[in-house]
Amino acid sequence: MNISEVSGKFGLTPDTLRYYEKIGLIPPVNRTAGGVRAYSEHDLNWIDFVMCMRNAGLSIEVLQNYLKLFEQGDSSLQERKEILIEQRQVLAEKIRALQDTVERLDHKIEGYNGQLLEAEHELQNKMVKK
Amino acid sequence: MNISEVSGKFGLTPDTLRYYEKIGLIPPVNRTAGGVRAYSEHDLNWIDFVMCMRNAGLSIEVLQNYLKLFEQGDSSLQERKEILIEQRQVLAEKIRALQDTVERLDHKIEGYNGQLLEAEHELQNKMVKK
DNA sequence: CTAATACTTGGAGTGGACTCCAAGTCAAGG
DNA sequence: CCTTGACTTGGAGTCCACTCCAAGTATTAG
């Protein structure tokens, strides 16, 4: 798979894909004889993982570190696992905060329903008076 | 309440508070004779609301728009409510995405548990052979 | 009354994460 | 063989949301 195919598949621009590789968010992609990137299944998995984590708000730094450890092989298994556990906690906390915010919005929306109802009644009163 | 008190209360720098006012994220704050900001209860409520929404990821633009409508009075009730409902949907969707990501992390963490166990067994095998 | 502190404004600078560009290389269709 | 279009690199530019600064004014403790 070449870069524009991958770009289409994931909705990332070729620039972003090259950028991710350059800064070490995804492993170096193998090239054809001519130096053109040929993405493997393994590469696609990484891209998918990284996009998922980026979308969830993980920083580039954390993911760079994770890849670096991955490339060090089995000796980093424990450390990698700990990173994932830590980030999992962060996300769980984020979910809780978002749920609170949704509740707050719900209250506010309820308040608007009340106000709109009031406004409607007022309108009816006026019409009755007329 | 003056700006540094508010700053302390919310963990925002005075700069950020002034910035939020300047760009219309919170209503203009009343001033003392000397031109010093004196934050009212009303202002504090707005700041709290805005921070909550910013933390949840709402853009400054959406909140500017919401304040603008608020300042137009009751005629914008319906429109404001719709903004809140829309943003509520966005957050609900975000929560769902985060939950999926947490699940994915859980699977990955489980995978690491397996690998670490394997590595441990291997180690034991070696020791037995010795 | 004065020194120190906190406030004001407008504008420049920063950091993260892209995003775009210039200049050059390479491969495939006509 | 030549043109077209995708690829390469390194580096500059952009956008968002602050964050900091300079220069000046106001308030407060002593």
Automatic annotation (TrEMBL), chains A, B:
Protein's UniProt name: DNA-binding transcriptional MerR regulator
Coiled coil spans: 81-122
Domain HTH merR-type, first and last residues per copy: 1-69
SUPFAM superfamilies: Putative DNA-binding domain
InterPro entries named in the record: DNA-bd_dom_put_sf (IPR009061), MerR-type_HTH_dom (IPR000551), MerR_fam (IPR047057)
Species this chain originates from: Scopulibacillus darangshiensis
Any GO MF annotation of the entry: DNA binding
Keyword Cytoplasm: no
Record keywords, A-Z: Coiled coil, DNA-binding
Highest rank taxon of the organism: Bacteria
Entry annotated with the keyword Repeat: no
CDD domains xref list: HTH_YyaN (cd01109)
